[in-house]
Amino acid sequence: MRLQFLVSTVNEEVETLAQRMNLQADAIVVNQCDRNEYREYTHEEHRIRCYSFAERGVGLSRNNCLMRAEGELCLFADEDIVYRPGAAKAVIAEFEKNPDADMILFNVDVPKERQTYHIDGYGRVRWYNCGRYPTFSFAARTEKLHEAGVTFSLLFGGGAKYSNGEDSLFLAQCIRKGLKVYKAPVTIGRENGRPSTWFHGYNEKFFYDRGVLYRFLYGRAALPMAVRFLLKNRTQMFGRQQTGEVLEKTEEFGAGLSMGQAFSLMRKGIRMKE
Questions:
Q1: How large is the average pLDDT for residues 70-97?
Q2: 104 in Cβ contact with 122 (< 8 Å)
Q3: What's the CA gap between 169 and 182, in Å, rounded?
Q4: Residue 8: left (phi > 0), alpha (psi -120 to 50), or beta?
Q5: How far apart are CA 215 and CA 230, in angstroms?
Q6: Which residues contact 25 (CB under 8 A, 6 or more apart)?
Q7: C-alpha angle with apex 125: 196 to 1, nearest 5 degrees?
Q8: Do 164 and 105 share a structural domain?
Q9: 46, 62, 123, 139: which could join 152 in a potential S-S bond, CB 3.0 to 4.6 Å?
Q10: Boundaries of domain holding 112
Q11: How confident is the model at residue 197 (pLDDT cuts 50, 70, 90)?
């Protein structure tokens, strides 16, 4: 099987990117910057095709990568991922072991404060538990994605109207279109710590945007899923506020909102008008 990395980046020196990321296969790089140009080079006998576009939006970047993908398998990536030796072979091996899989999600180590998931066993990913996985965990059979006509939302994610969630929406779309999505407890790389491009604390925008995301992600189940989200993450997001105690505004807890205020904001986002 032939694997191809699909790398989304912003204002990068693309000529050194393959070495810094330890890319072990051909790659398509979409670099969002202030110019439009194309460059190509070889890294350890792998073809690295670099497209620079004067545009913004992570969903747009992912789509530009995906529409140009031609490897039998594709692995979505960000510029701050460094892959382990043998990562490409490990991804290919999992697809060879599971010919039924259209997509497989893998572990990528991230700083503890940014961790949203960890895969500790094999299994199927369903609509109700697909909301935690970042795009850089996704590998797929390219032809299956093209046949399904799936794309990343242009409304969510860095550089878009709403903070984040383009990864969850893409995964949910794949599942709705009948693609079989699995997870594997295989770690393929690590993320270098960097400031988030969209997270600025648990403030009003965070919870409102999360509500909008849940509207599109879960439909009629959005409200109970919002309650589940708030309860599951209450210590991280509210600290002692979960007991009703009001905290002053801090960097750790963002805007110092109570859980009730957060729910109201999420409900407002869920009920947003078109």
A1: 97
A2: no
A3: 16
A4: beta
A5: 15
A6: 2, 3, 4, 5, 46, 71, 75, 88
A7: 85
A8: yes
A9: 62
A10: 3-191
A11: low
